Amino acid sequence: MTDDPPGSRRPRRLAPLRWSVATAAFQIEGARHADGRGRSIWDDFVEMPGAVLDGSTAEPGPDSWHRWREDIALAVELGVDRYRFSLSWVRVRPEHGRPANRAALDRYSRMVDALLDAGVAPFVTLYHWDLPSVLEEHGGWLDRRTPFAFAEYVQTVVDALGDRVADWYTINEPVSTTLQGYAIGELAPARTLLFGALPTAHHQLLAHGLAQQVIRSAGSGRVGIVNNHTAVRPASARDEDLAAAEVYDLLHNRLFADPVLRGEYPDLSMLGVPDLPVEDGDLALISRPSDFYGVNYYNPTRVGAAAPDSPIPFEILPIEGAPTTGFGWPIDPQGLRAVLGQLADRYGDALPPIVIGENGASFPEPDHSSHTIHDAERIDYLARHLDAVEAARNDGLDIAEFTVWSLLDNFEWADGFTQRFGLVHVDHNTSLRTPKASYSWFRDRIAASRAQHEAGAGA
Ligand code: FCB
To answer: For the domain that residue 432 is a member of, what is the CATH number?
Structure first.
C-alpha cells in the first residue's frame, strides 16, 4: 500500500529497470527444412512470388537454428538481464494432432540451460506470427479452434521447459496479424478481408487467455501479452480528422488492450461491423490479471479522414518534418511517453507493471561489413526512447523492463533482408555476426545504470 491519493502518479521507489534484447524464431532461425520442422504461414508467404521485397526466404540469414550459441554469447556479453526469443510452433509440433518433435524441444531446452548457466533469464515468446499452415487452411485466426490448438502447443512447451523458464509472452502484436496479416495482406497470411479480419483479434486474445491459464495451472512463472501501441495524432482539429483518429486508435490500441485490461471490447458500432464472435466466459478469461503488460513501440501515427471512396474510414499520413528511420517510420520518442501515459490514464490500477517488449530502428547499412558499423542514428534513437522511458518512470509509471529490437539484423518479414534493426550486423549470406557501435553503447549503458543503482543502494 502507498499513501498516495487515488489516481496519483507520484513517484514510488521503483526497482531498477531490467534490460533485455529480442529476436523471433522465423526471423533468425533460417534452416526451414532442418530437423523435421513443419510448415507455417511464413513459409507460404516467402514462397509467394513477389511477396517479399528482395525475394529472400529468411535463409540463411543469422542461421540461429545452428548458431544459437553465438547469439547467447552476444547477449551475455551485452550484460542483459534477459533474452527475449520466440519458439517455432511448427518445430515443436510439426504436424497438428501428432506428437511433439523431441529434437526441437531438446534444442530449445539446451538453449534455455545455456542462458540460465550464463545468468541471463530466458524470456520466451510463445507466438511470434508463425502459425502452422494447416491451421490457416482451416481459417487460421478466423477460426475459434485455432486458440485451442495454440493452448495444446503451449501445454507441450510448458511441460518441456516450464521447470526452467519463468517468463512468458503469450502472443506478439495481435494487432499486426489482424490489420496487416488478415485485413490488408501485407504480412502472412496475406488476406485482404478489411473489417472481415476483426474476428482474428478476438481469437488471438482468446489464445492469450488460454495460454495464460495453461501457464498458471502449471505454476510456471510470470506471463502476459505483448501489444504494439502507437500514439495516434489527428491530422488536424477538423471533426472528420478527429473522428478518423478515434477510429484508428480504437483499431490499433483499444481493441487489443481494453479486453485484456478492462474485460470488455470498445464500442465498435461506428464501424458498422458484425459483433465479434465472443462467447460466454471469453472476456473473463482474457482479462484475468497478468504479471506484466508488454508494450512494443516504434513510432506515432498521424491519421486523417479518408477520401470518400476509400474502403476504410481513415488515412495514415506522413508526419511533416519528422526525421524517419530506414523504413520511413517517423522518429518521435515523445510518442512513447504519450503511449505509456495513455495506458496509465486509461487502465489505472488494472495496468500491471509495463515491460517494453520491443523498441528499435532500422537504418540503411551495407550487406557486408569487415569493420564495426558506426550506427550513430540507432544509438540516438535508442538513447532518446530510453529517456522517454525514464521520464515516464519519473512520472510514477511502473515500467519494469526495456528491450531492444533486435539483437541481430534479421529477416524483416515482407521487407526481407532490406531492413537492419540489429545491434549486431549479420551478413545474410555467410551468417557472420559483427557487433555495431550501438552494441557497445548498449552494453555501456546497462553497466552504467547498474553501477548507478548499486552506488545508490550502498549510499
Ligand atoms: C515488430 C515485430 C518484430 C519486428 C519489428 C521491427 O512489429 O514484432 O518482429 O519485425 O516490428
So the answer is: 3.20.20.80
